[in-house]
């Protein structure tokens, strides 16, 4: 680990000033500290923001939920409003990590966690995300766990967050605080595809931090859930995952929100699947037909071709679980 200085921000203005001066924000530290140990991350200054007033979960005027960036994962899981209104969120969080990590990690930190690509974490390997212009060792290396959607010639690493998949499906909004004030960004625009600049992973500007994630008020009743497929049952990152939310009224699907994880360079919204569902009556035939669109545009690599079929099956299974039908 390289030397660094540490400061604990007593208030929002102090935190933003320190961030604008080049400090890196830290709260739970469950990802950043690991990367610092491995010398993948080498911040000169850490700005502890854990004392900031960003720990509330509140119902919005329109009936959605606003989750503060410093809410612990375990707190969000246990919150009655989250469990009742958006079970897809609580399920994604429960499947993300051990109880110990959920008691430390924050919602904002979970969104901001960096890829688990082994080449990114190996400082001797070529990685454009870690060192722009060095190449991507995963393209022709062992790429079984890598992305098949949203990839580029510069990067094929997946985004590891489970709850980010649920936020993507629900079309959440990210609230940001910065030196120039407050602004909002649609969640689907917040995490960036690699393109030619895989080192630029999010829409944060210099000195900005995440204040909250807001979930929209969706029609009721809303059924939702999260399915995670992985190599082992506990505490493993997804090979594929599916976040599904359906509003079914009068026996017809009126709203459909679907996204996938473990297969994209960012959490992957599935609009083609959603279009297949709207206006239809739930049935096993419908789930099968809609899920066939889940891998549209996939570009599998040598070792992860299995993810194309696995993604379709994962989406189909979760549609059946959430939507029922005959």
From TrEMBL:
Q: What InterPro entries does the database record attribute to this sequence?
A: CO_DH_flav_C, CO_DH_flav_C_dom_sf, Diverse_Substr_Oxidored, FAD-bd_PCMH, FAD-bd_PCMH-like_sf, FAD-bd_PCMH_sub1, FAD-bd_PCMH_sub2, Mopterin_DH_FAD-bd
User: Which Gene Ontology MF annotations are present?
Assistant: FAD binding; oxidoreductase activity
The record's section on Gene3D superfamilies has: 3.30.465.10, CO dehydrogenase flavoprotein, C-terminal domain, Uridine Diphospho-n-acetylenolpyruvylglucosamine Reductase, domain 2
Output the superkingdom of the source species: Bacteria
Q: Does the keyword Nucleus apply?
A: no
Query: Is Oxidoreductase included in the keywords of this UniProt record?
Result: yes
| Residue ranges annotated for the FAD-binding PCMH-type domain, each copy included | 1-220
Listed A to Z, the keywords are: Oxidoreductase
- Can you say what this protein is called? FAD-binding molybdopterin dehydrogenase
The organism is Streptomyces cahuitamycinicus
Instruction: Give the organism's phylogenetic lineage.
Output: Bacteria, Bacillati, Actinomycetota, Actinomycetes, Kitasatosporales
